[in-house]
Design a protein that fits this description.
This protein has 381 residues and is an alpha/beta fold. It is built from 13 helices and 10 strands.
Length: 381
């Protein structure tokens, strides 16, 4: 991915890296057993694209990754799943650019719609239904907090099978969430007024997490997604979250793939933030610095966030063990990975450091693994 296309909007680079890495694995895995894959982009753009070929847009990235997976499957497994895509864009100028782009594509079935998402839900459902063998991936990437209220997207969340990725525009949402004039919009976004109770009295640093976790819980429940995940995308120039990607899956494999894409992209995010900071310093001082951003250590803010979310994960999994006495490792894994910036290696490290008994290990096994019947806790009841 060409980083120069994202100068001044590094947060979009990380979003697209996660999307790219996830779709690469998603399309290959699904294409290995499913006859068709459908990609739905509910806010397609293009927006602020710096590439004549739209290489820095979500729709171009999706098409590229779907094709790559299909070609790999054809070579390795002699499979060639059907590829389908639906692009929704309400802005007429952006839609015309999008339409001109897709008219050149003949190897993928593509439908474009010039309308709001709210007006397009039935069309999306119909497009998915037209191919009974398809597996949909739905990307909801708005510019703010409106246009994707829970009552609007609920029919999409209830499509089975499907996986969903939602860009929760944290910076904008937290800024206006206590604005009385915006309360009706936020009630529709979260699906009920109960989010206010979760956020009431929270400090600024806690309000972000409270809003993100409440939204994750709301959309997970709405679509019966047992395996949600979150990726925190930081502002490139300030120590705060810019937005969060909310991932929804009904499969542990899906969550595993998403967390893998998140982990790989966090190093890129820290490098991008270091480059932005270096550029700002050099602009202020007029002097070029000796060491590049690639040599910069992990930022203190990123490290603090990691510790914060590890604390949340430890609290939740520890509470499960205290309440149940013993739990499946798979349940601990699922509870742990619901948080951003924490991974399975952290869970295994915590288990070892705390000396938590692991039951069910066979000869030669030293650490717990999923799907092996391993359990954590003080006793087997």
């Amino acid at each position: 991915m060409d980083e120069q296309l994202y100068a001044g909007r590094e947060q979009s680079l990380i979003k697209h890296l996660i999307l790219q890495r996830y779709l690469e694995r998603f399309a290959f895995i699904i294409g290995s057993w499913r006859e068709s894959i459908t990609y739905v982009d509910c806010f397609s753009g293009p927006w602020k694209s710096q590439s004549e070929s739209y290489d820095d847009t979500s729709f171009a990235i999706a098409i590229r990754q779907l094709r790559a997976a299909r070609d790999t499957l054809a070579q390795k497994n002699d499979r060639r799943p059907r590829l389908r895509a639906m692009f929704i864009e309400r802005d007429i100028e952006s839609f015309q650019q999008l339409q001109a782009y897709v008219e050149k594509i003949s190897d993928i079935e593509i439908k474009t719609v010039n309308a709001d998402l709210e007006q397009s839900v039935d069309a999306i459902k119909e497009f998915v239904r037209q191919d009974a063998q398809t597996f949909p991936f739905i990307f909801i990437d708005p510019k703010g907090w409106s246009g994707f209220a829970l009552d609007v997207i609920r029919p999409l969340l209830n499509i089975q099978p499907c996986e969903v990725l939602i860009n929760f525009m944290t910076q904008h949402i937290v800024r206006f969430i206590n604005n009385e004039a915006s309360q009706e919009s936020f009630e529709r976004l979260f699906g009920s007024p109960s989010f206010r109770q979760k956020l009431a009295g929270t400090k600024k640093e806690d309000r972000v997490d409270a809003a993100v976790f409440e939204y994750r819980n709301a959309v997970s429940l709405a679509g019966s997604f047992e395996f949600p995940g979150i990726a925190a995308i930081l502002n490139p120039n300030k120590d705060r979250s810019h937005f969060h990607l909310i991932y929804l899956s009904r499969s542990p494999k899906g969550l595993e793939v998403f967390k893998g894409a998140e982990m790989k992209s966090m190093e890129d995010m820290e490098t991008a933030r270091a480059k932005a900071e270096l550029k700002s310093r050099e602009s202020r001082t007029g002097q070029r610095e000796l060491f590049g951003a690639e040599d910069a250590p992990e930022s203190e803010y990123f490290s603090a966030l990691r510790k914060r979310y590890l604390t949340f994960a430890i609290k939740d999994v520890g509470q499960l063990i205290r309440e149940m006495g013993v739990i499946d490792y798979d349940e601990a894994w699922k509870a742990w990975l619901r948080f951003p910036l924490v991974w399975e290696a952290d869970l295994k490290r915590w288990i070892a450091e705390m000396g938590i008994p692991v039951h069910g290990l066979l000869s030669g096994e030293r650490v717990p693994k999923r799907t092996k019947g391993h359990k954590l806790g003080t006793k087997i009841s």
